[in-house]
Give the backbone structure.
Amino acid sequence: MKNTKTRKLVEGALMIAIAYVLSYIKLFAMPLGGSVTLEMLPLVIMGLRNGPKWGCFTGFVHGLIQMVLGFSNVMYCPTLLSQIGCILLDYLLASTVLGLAGLIAKPFGEKRLVGATVGTVVCGALQFLCTFLSGCLVWAAYYAEYYDLVGWDLVAYSFSYNIAYMLPNTVLAVIVVLLLYRIAPKMFQAQNA
């Protein structure tokens, strides 16, 4: 039992390190934050291999590290409430939801490739939802002041801005999951022992 926990902690730490490195390999960067990377991939794989408990824990720790290293972004939020919203939606929840991939893939049973693909897509959609809500709820005051956006304009702006990098992130992660599954299918086996 102890060796299993140790293995999962080590694996989680490795996945966090890999995600951190991948966050700096940007295929495209948006002007106000967000970029196309493979950062989500190791966190999704952790969830697929070790289930939602370990996957979400690993995602949460990754989000915490990213928040600490990018804390200056939080200072753009004009109020304490919006700063808390930014911390929760842009960092902690956005990374934590990636660990749910194993839970989403579980109903597919022996169809592991389908489960891994669906898990990656759903987790990408959940991460997009976090960034979209952050754009609408947290960054609304910032957008309204600098871009003269209100109401549905703000919703449309948040949707188009966040989908511009989150959709390619998810598509890229799915492609790499499919390739990795073909090359190393054992990588996607649940680690129950």
